[in-house]
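Deliverable D5.2: sample structural annotation.
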Amino acid sequence: MYQKNYDGVDFSQRSLGVAKKKVHRRKQSRKHSIQWQQWQQVWGVTWKVIALSLCLVGIWHLLEQQFRPLDSQPATAELTPVRRQFLDEVGPAAVKYGHQYNVLPSITIAQAILESDWGTSQLASQYHNLFGVKSDDPQNSQVLKTKEYRQGQWLEIDASFRVYPNFAASIEAHNQLLTQGTSWNTDQYQQVLQADNYVQAARSLQKAGYATDPNYAQKLINLIKKYQLDSYDRN
C-alpha cells in the first residue's frame, strides 16, 4: 500500500517530483557550464584575433614608414629658426650653382653647415666665407684662428681666409674650385663631380684630400641624412 501524508498526498509521487526537480537542476547546471565554456572559448579566440590584428597593423605601419618615398616622410630633425633661415638663404644658391657646375646641392649645403656651424662662425657671419677658403691676397682676406688635423691631432693655427660679399658668392667660388681643381691638379675633384649620389660625392671629397678631418665624409653624410638635404638634389 502507498503511504500518504496528512494531506492525502502520495509520498512516492512527492519523492518522484523532488527527484525530477533535482535532475532538471543538474541539467540546467550542466547546460550553463557548457555555455560558459563555449563563451570562454569564443572570447579567447576573439582576443587572439584582436591581438593578431594589432600585430599585423603594427608591422604594416613599420613597413609603410620604412618604404615610404622620401618626399612624403616627415623631417627627421627639428630645425631652429636660425637654422631654417640659414637653409633658406644658402639652399637656392646651392641649387643654382649646383646645376651650373654639376655639384650636388646636398653636398654644398652639408659642407656649409659643417664648416660654418650653420653660418654662425666668425668667418661666415662677418666675412661670408662658408667653406674656410684660404687666400694669399692681403686686400681680400682676413687672418683668423682655425683648427686643422695634423699628425693625428687637432692643432690651432693662424690662417688667412678669403672674404666674400655674401653667401651666394662663397658658394659659387666653392663650386668653381671643385670644377676647376687646384693649381697643381685640375682634375683633383673630378670624382666628386661624377658621383651618382651624395654618399659617393662625400667620400670622393675626402679621398681627394679636401679636408684634414679623417671623419669629414661621414659627417657630411650624417648631416644630409638627418636634415634630408638630398631633397635639394631633386630641384
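Annotation notes: The domain at 79-132+165-234 is CATH 1.10.530.10 (Lysozyme). Helices lie at 11-67, 81-101, 105-116, 122-127, 167-180, 190-193, 198-207, 216-227.
The annotation will be released with the project's public dataset once the embargo ends.
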